[in-house]
Design goal:
Creatine Amidinohydrolase, 35% helix, six-stranded mixed sheet, alpha+beta, 387 residues, Creatine Amidinohydrolase, Chain A, domain 1, 2 domains, five-stranded mixed sheet, 11 helices, 18 strands, globular, 23% strand
Length: 387
């Protein structure tokens, strides 16, 4: 669980963003925004489509609306005010708030209405895109609500600059992903399958206390398949292996990419990978406060092509990361958002050629006052296995 200072700091930033937008209340339904406000992430909302959850944040009050099945976990998380909905039965020998949560309110809208009533006259209410049209209409219809306005950008602005505790969680998540790739490469050899290496990655991340979220391992021609799932395809000498993996620590994501070859790489493999590394090095060289995200993208593409890999066509060369693997801004054309100290980005230069293979290098950095600091420490070379 995140430390109390970080949890309170997130809430303070969200409240300040709310006040800057002239809002009296935020009603958040996107799971990552609910987590940011309350410190609680509902498993049901993540895995069961259509399970609504909401955090209502005022200037001096927070209320969480979630399924009754979440009651015990909500109590453990120390969220505070909780309005449950739906039916779920906990048995308890001694009095426990979770045991009384079932059947209090039949639906999410009923519980949301009760939570809203507790805030009284609220004036301007900001809602994010995760709340759903029916819930937004219900908020707008409540007495005392003068206006309902979109607030997804408000939440993203608050989340964009990371607190020290958030950076620490992101650093640990990145380290866990790197450890997973390292363990897989150490255990790799001719005849190993994509699925076997993916299992090594995932088990290492889990053993280190992280929650595995995605593990892409592709060999040979399948290394060019983007985000394809691992199969029983075996690794053969001379072939590339592309890793793109991520996990969560305290809700914060990692996203790390590396490339290996079984046996000595040929000249094309070496030259192309060197060009991709040159592109990422160029990104690292310019990532600093005040630099626009689209400028980082342009520098990356130009450096890859200057190093001999032409044409180099990409829709993006990185993204910010936090409670979601893709946050804002994206390192891509059209994103003229200036980088700010405390933003955390994944910088990447992948390449996919069907019939030949795929390569990538991807690392995580935090923007500092003087530039940036790498959160990943695993070497970025083209890894050679079994030479």
């Amino acid at each position: 669980m995140l430390d109390p200072v970080t949890r309170q700091g997130r809430r303070d930033r969200l409240r300040q963003a709310m006040l800057d937008a002239a809002l009296d209340l935020l009603v958040l339904g996107h799971p990552a925004n609910v987590d940011y406000a309350s410190g609680y992430r509902s498993v049901a909302a993540d895995i069961i489509p259509g399970t609504p959850i909401a955090a209502l944040l005022g200037v001096d009050r927070l209320v969480l609306v979630a399924p009754a099945a979440d009651a015990a976990a909500v109590d453990e998380a120390g969220v505070g005010e909780f309005v449950p909905y739906g039916r779920f039965f906990f048995e308890a020998r001694d009095p426990h708030p979770a045991a009384a949560a079932s059947d209090r309110y039949g639906s999410f809208l009923d519980a949301l209405g009760v939570a809203l009533d507790g805030f009284g006259e609220v004036g301007r209410v900001g809602v994010d895109g995760g709340l759903g049209a029916e819930a937004v209409a219900a908020v707008a219809a409540r007495p005392g609500v003068d206006a309902v306005v979109p607030a997804s950008d408000v939440a993203y602005r608050a989340r964009a600059v990371k607190l020290e505790g958030e950076v620490d969680a992101l650093r640990r998540a990145a380290a866990s992903a790197c450890a997973g790739i390292a363990a897989a490469l150490e255990g790799a050899g001719e005849g190993v399958t994509e699925r076997e290496l993916a299992s090594m990655v995932a088990s290492t991340m889990a053993a280190g206390g992280a929650q595995p979220r995605f593990v892409v391992v592709g060999f040979g021609e399948r290394s060019a398949y983007g985000d394809a799932r691992p199969t029983d395809r075996v690794w053969r000498r001379g072939e590339l292996a592309r890793f793109d993996v991520g996990c969560e620590v305290e809700g914060y994501w990692s996203d790390v990419g590396r490339t290996a070859v079984l046996g000595e790489p040929d000249r094309r493999q070496r030259d192309r990978y060197a060009a991709l590394v040159a592109g990422e090095e160029a990104e690292l060289g310019v990532t600093a406060p005040g630099v626009e995200a689209e400028e980082v993208f342009a520098v990356a593409v130009s450096a890859v092509e200057a190093a001999g890999l032409r044409p180099y066509r990409r829709h993006h060369c990185g993204h910010t990361i936090g409670l979601e693997v893709y946050e804002r801004p994206v390192v891509a054309p059209g994103w003229d958002t200036p980088l700010v100290t405390g933003m955390v980005l994944c910088l990447e230069t992948p390449y996919y050629e069907l019939g030949w293979g795929g390569m990538m290098v991807e690392d995580t950095v935090v923007v500092t006052e003087t530039g940036n600091e790498l959160l990943t420490s695993f070497p970025r070379e083209l890894w050679v296995v079994g030479s």
